[in-house]
Amino acid sequence: MIQQDPEEEQTTRVEAEVGEEEVGELRQVLTEEKQKAESYLANWQRAQADFVNYKRRSEQEKEEISKFANLALMLNLLPVLDDLERAFASIPPNLAKLSWVDGIRLIERKLQASLETQGLSPIEALGEPFDPHLHEAIRQDKGKEGIVIEEGQKGYKFHDRVIRPSSVVVGNGEAEEKKEVEQENSQEDSAPAR
Q: Does a structural domain hold residue 93?
């Protein structure tokens, strides 16, 4: 005679005792538990994806904070650069060749080079088309229309972000109109008389 394992005997007895109704209920409970498990898995995957996104955002914020940590210092140094430029522009020609003036020019160049290595760069304005993202128009004057003809205050970028727009004078196109009228008049004068 073959001996059955005690666990198998118990399973066989339980199956015999359990009716078909109970099997149906157990299957229903099993299905519900599977659905719960799938729901828990989906929620866990969503939470994991949210965490990965949060981690990425926080790293980007840290990078930006470290990148722009010196912004306040740069903004405080811009008036110093402006004052140095105005001072050099107003030096009389007889004093321009003195050694102490050259020394101060060297200090200004070192300061500008140091600020440029930190990410500060001047905005080119003269002769460029007016760009409201880079320039602030203080007035219009005679000159080529839409072109910056004069710079009142230099603008700067810090890591490709404008921290101070250039204050500029923009041409209004009057000079072009006058040239066209003068050209027409000169063509009329040079035309042979009939």
A: yes
Q: 20 in a domain, yes or no?
A: no
Rounded to an integer, what distance in angstroms lies between the CA atom of residue 76 and that of residue 111?
13
Tally of CA atoms within 13 A in the half-sphere of 139 that contains its CB: 4
Mean pLDDT across the chain: 84
Q: Please state the rounded mean pLDDT for residues 116-135.
A: 91
pLDDT of 96 over the 50 cut: yes
Neighbours of 170 (CB within 10 A): 21
Which residue's entry shows tokens 């230099």?
154
Number of structural domains found in the chain:
1
Q: For residue 90, which phi and psi values (nearest 5 degrees)?
A: -100, 10
Domain boundaries, position 155:
67-179
Residue 147: DSSP 8-state: B
Residues with Cβ within 8 Å of residue 141, at least 6 apart in sequence? 149, 150, 169, 170, 171, 172
CA 139 to CA 80: how far, in whole Å? 25
Please measure the distance between the N-terminal and C-terminal CA atoms of the chain and give it in whole angstroms. 140
Q: Which amino acid is at 83?
A: D
In angstroms and rounded to an integer, the radius of gyration of the C-alpha atoms of the chain is 40
CATH of the domain at 92: 2.30.22.10
136 in a domain, yes or no?
yes
In a domain, 119, yes or no: yes
